Task: inverse folding
């Protein structure tokens, strides 16, 4: 199973939901490692990842990712992400990346996967997906966490994004210097 291999290889940094949602169907919400942190010699544990994709919503069927959404601070991190994970995507998979340092939606194809990249400086991937897919909290009432991910993935036909399709070099040239906005108690 895909999530078991991620866990065994230390690719899961944080897991909010991780489990079977049916026969051969796996659901996951959490953070995935893109680039490992250095090994801490004294304790033989790893330091936090140097790069990761956060707030991932993933649905895999038969060991291949069919639906994926996540958050990146910097669009340039998409290239190492694709290098590590693109082989796990099914043909025609939906892949949505929310990113801080872009101004307009775009589609970027890397390693055979087309990623729809959407600007997002604040907010949460899950909430953004719910809004874009017109899913109300009441639509998810009584469902297990894994079933909720299936419901979101099933509604992906409602995702429509305008934006040009670019290769990675052209997309990278369209980035800006924006950084994530945080708010909270002072």
Result:
């Amino acid at each position: 199973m895909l999530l078991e291999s991620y866990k065994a290889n230390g690719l899961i940094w944080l897991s909010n939901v991780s489990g079977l949602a049916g026969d051969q169907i796996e659901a996951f919400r959490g953070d995935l490692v893109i680039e490992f942190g250095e090994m801490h010699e004294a304790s033989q544990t790893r330091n936090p990842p140097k790069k990761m994709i956060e707030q991932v919503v993933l649905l895999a069927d038969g060991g291949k990712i069919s639906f994926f959404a996540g958050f990146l601070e910097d669009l340039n991190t998409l290239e190492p992400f694709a290098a590590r994970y693109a082989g796990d995507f099914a043909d025609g998979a939906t892949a949505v990346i929310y990113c801080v340092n872009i101004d307009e939606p775009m589609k970027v194809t890397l390693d055979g996967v087309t990623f729809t990249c959407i600007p997002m400086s604040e907010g949460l991937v899950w909430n953004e997906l719910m809004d874009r897919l017109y899913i109300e909290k009441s639509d998810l009432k009584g469902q297990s966490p894994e079933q909720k991910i299936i419901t979101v993935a099933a509604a992906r036909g409602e995702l429509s994004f305008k934006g040009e399709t670019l290769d990675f070099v052209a997309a990278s040239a369209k980035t800006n210097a924006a950084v994530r906005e945080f708010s909270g108690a002072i």
